[in-house]
Specification:
- There is one protein chain.
- The chain is an alpha/beta fold.
- It contains 9 helices and 10 strands.
- Helix 7 packs across helix 8.
- The structure holds zinc ion.
Amino acid sequence: MSTQHLVATSIITAVLSSMLLCSCRDNTPENRTPMIPSYSVPASIPSYSGDRAFALLERQVAFGPRVPGTEAHADCLQFFRSFFDSLGIDTELQSFEFPGYEGETLPLTNVIAQINPGAKQRILLAAHWDSRPTADREPDPDRALRPVPGANDGASAVAVLLHLAEVLVEHSPPVGVDIILFDGEDYGREGDESMFCLGSKYYAASLDPSHPLPMFGILLDLVGDREAVFPMEEFSRRYASDVLTMVWDAAEQQGLTRFVRRSHSGIYDDHVPLNTVAGIKTINIVDAELVGQNTSDPRRQYWHTLDDLPSQCSPAPLSDVGQLLLSVIFGMHTTEHHEIQ
Ligand SMILES: [Zn+2]
C-alpha cells in the first residue's frame, strides 16, 4: 500500500463520513425530496428506436471492457463527451480517484448530462457505464481473470439513456431530466458492498445540500436481455414505493408486459446510495433474476461471465424501457412554468 493510497483513502473516508453524518440529519426523502407530481397517461409520446439504442450498446462494447484505468474506459468516456456535446447538452464530468484492491488508484468519472437545465422540477435517470474487471462467475479460473464485456451489465442501460437524450433534444420534456452515467458500480468482489457503487456513493455524498433534489430517480441496470423481465425489486419498494407503483402502472398502461408485479429480493445497486445517502427516492428497473445467475434458463446464466455479449441482447427490451421512460416523463404534470429550450 502506497502513501498516496493511504492519503486518498483517508480523504475519501473523511468526505464520505462527514456527508453521511449530514445525511442522518436532513437528507431523508421526507425532508428534501419534493412531492411527486401527478401522473396521467400522456396523449402521445415521441417514438423511441430500439434499433438506435442497440447500435449505441454495440458502440460501447466495441471499445472493449470499460474497466477503470484502461484505455477502453478512457476512450468510452471521450465518446460520451463527444456524444453529449454534439447534442448541445450541458454535461458535467465528476471525476475522482478511489483506491483499488491492489493499491492502484482508480480514475473514476460520473457523467452528468442535464436536459432542460433551467427546470426546477427534475427527474434523475441513471445507469452505470463501467465494466467489471473480472469475470468471477466463470467456472474456468483462467477465464475468470478476464474482464466482463458488459453488453447487458452496463452498456444496455447506458444505451437506453443515450438514445433517450437524442429524443429529448428533439422533443422538449415538461420537466428537467438529469441523465447520470455512474462509474465504478461493478468494481467490487462479491460480498464486499464497500467496493461497489463507487460513483453513486461519491455523487450522493457530494450533492450541494442547498440545491433542490430531483423529484425522484429511476435507475436502469441489465435491461437489454432479449427475454428481459423486470420484477418489483425490494429496495425500490422499501425506499420509493410510490415511484415504483407509478412506473409499473405506466408500464401496464403502455402494454409493456416485461414489467411484472412479482416482487424480488433487494439488489444492492446504485439506487441504494441515492436513496439512503442523497435522499432521492429512486427505483431500479433491473432484470433481477440475472443477478447471481438466479434463472433456470441456461442461456441467461451469463451474469459476470465472458458471455455477457451483444448477442444476448436485442432492440426490443431497450425500446420497451425507453418508451416507458418517455411515458413517465411526458405524463408528468408539474406546477412549474419554465422556458422551453
Ligand atoms: Zn455487474
